Amino acid sequence: MESSDINLQLAIRDRPVVPTGTHHLELDKYLFPTNEIMRLSKAVGEWIEDRAPGGIIHGDQRLGKTHAVSFLCEMLPVKFGDDLPIFFVPSRHKKNANEEAFYEMLLVGVKHALPSAGKKNQKFERLARFLLEKGENSKRKMIVLFIDEAQFLIESHYNWLIDLYNWLQQYQVRLTVILVGQPELKHQKDLYVIEKKRQVVGRFMVNDFEFKGARSISDIKTCLKGYDTIEYPEDSGWSYTRYYFPESYASGNRLENCAEELYEAFISVCKENNIGGKLEIPMQYLTITVKYALLKYGAEGKSKDKKTWPNKEIWINCVKRSRFADSEVSLFGSN
């Protein structure tokens, strides 16, 4: 046996045993920074440093805004301290605004033990005092509240947020509300500006961040590097790339070096489907593409192609499998 074969066998000898279907890649239980997330992190960090009352994060669906905010919720305490209260509340689509239901939604979002008891005044009091306690126990005397799918909020909701903001302000605790939503959220802001609804725009919408998908080889490279570095099981030394392609990894291959081929694969699929315009890859389809490549062609794959390190042809197949083109055509049409 040649020494190179022996070295490869040694390199994969200690590969972890992970039960089928439980790897975090398969369960989509992983977070990693992208260029866009780091850009967003810088902006939101400045809003917090400035003790701004709020801001909006908007962009098309599928770009990864919720993923980005989940990452921020883990990363911001590293920068600002573990005692900074950060809450992430999914909004609900309601045809009619209901004050009691709104406070209950917030109570559920901040994980209050009694979100449903009482009427609207009691829910407001319970929510306000819960946040006051959290804010007073933080060095910065502030609370960061992300509200997802905020395009569903209407003026009444903002007025109730203003009531909450003012109640906390009397105790010198700052509430920073960061609204996350689709482009309709930006349109809503523009309409409020035209209508001179300064009480809403001035508090919650002055800061404005448009979230983008992957638009360059550099963006893709940063994303792929996450698979080369994040480990599962944690602290095992086995990154996602190493686990699924142990021999190729031992030979020095890394997914981040596939960035140009993967970018060209998306370009090829766009041309094949007459999708024009500047390439912007939603994070949803980028991660599905990479996941499929690892599962189908990696060590756990069941096809004859398993253990085949991805090349441009394979990446094209994986992009097609992600249904990226179908989504783009259905949303934006083709040329």
TrEMBL record:
GO terms for molecular function: ATP hydrolysis activity. It comes from the Bacteria. InterPro entries: AAA_22, P-loop_NTPase. Residues 53-187 form the ORC1/DEAH AAA+ ATPase domain. This is ORC1/DEAH AAA+ ATPase domain-containing protein. It comes from Paenibacillus pectinilyticus. The lineage of its organism: Bacteria, Bacillati, Bacillota, Bacilli, Bacillales.
